[in-house]
Amino acid sequence: MSKGLKFFLIAFIITFFGVFALNAFQQNLESAFYAQISQPFQQIVKVKIPEKSQKPNLDLQVKAAISVLADSQGGEGKKVLFKKNSNEKLAIASLTKLMTANIVLENYDLSQEIKISEEVVAQEGKAGKLMAGKIFSVEYLLYPLLMESSNDAAYALANDYNGMTEEKFVELMNLKAGDLGLENTYFVNSTGLDPEQPGHSINYSTAEDLVKLTEYLLKKPLIWEILATPKFSLYGPELINTNGLLGEIPNIVGGKTGFTDQAGGCMLLVLKNKGGNSLINVILGTISPETRIEEMEKLIEWLTGQ
Asked: Is residue 59 part of a domain?
């Protein structure tokens, strides 16, 4: 082999292995570089984003409840914020008197006067402070009816106005319930009292139906003016509202309470939110008149996050 050829082969071998070594070094250098710049991104990926805090479950000691944010413009849009057995038919006690007041507003002359009879004051309970022989306007009788849940006032309105009878009055109540689509609501009297004989029919509704009724009644400002009145003394004896949350919870539009042995404690409360929408809250079937207030407070605190 000539000396020139040997020199060429040696030079080729050196060049080949040199290029190979250089490529290997370059690959190692690039790997190290990318490992360094990717490390911060790997750390970012590993950071856990805190989960959004969940509102705790609400355990109301009631048979049924619902809270609905209704559209202030009277539209169909409304949002259910809470519900429990909201479509269960239950006795509603004196929440009945919301429909009683509505029938009066839609069918009576509010300026007409009614004389209180002995039969009126013989009704169960002393709420309303009515006395036999006294004469009051229909409009005034709505105050003891709604503020103190007076059975006397309910009886007088349903029986002593222009030949009206309890039977006719209750028929109007049920016709109106049908007109409003209250498919699970039925009335047997104007007061909400339990039947005198066990096993007889009783006024019943559902939390959902009571929301529908309330949405309709929000168009009747006199009802809410009365329901938001803490005290009233136009004719002497002072009427005191049974709604113990007046003045305790802000933005109350009005509320109605009820209690009988069969119905337990019941309460309806309407608030106005910052957007002007109505927050309608209903609870049915607490164990006592006191616990209806406690459970309603619990519901409102849960809704507002206080």
From this structure: no
CB 232 within 8 A of CB 239: yes
Report yes or no: 266 and 258 within 8 Å, Cβ to Cβ: yes
54 domain-assigned: no
Q: Catalytic residue positions?
A: 94, 97, 149
Question: What's the gap between Cα 306 and its chain centre?
Answer: 16
List b or e across 53-78, with b for residues whose CB sees 16 or more CB atoms inside 10 angstroms: eeeeeeebebbbbbbbbbeeeeeeee
pLDDT tens, residue by residue, 154-211: 999 999 999 999 999 999 999 999 999 999 999 999 999 999 877 789 999 999 999 9
Q: Is residue 129, in this structure, part of any structural domain at all?
A: yes
Residue 58 lies in a domain: no
pTM of the model: 0.81
Backbone angles phi, psi at 56, to 5 degrees: -65, 155
Q: Decide: helix, strand or coil at residue 282.
A: strand
The C-alpha torsion from 168 through 169 and 171 to 172, rounded to 10°, is 120
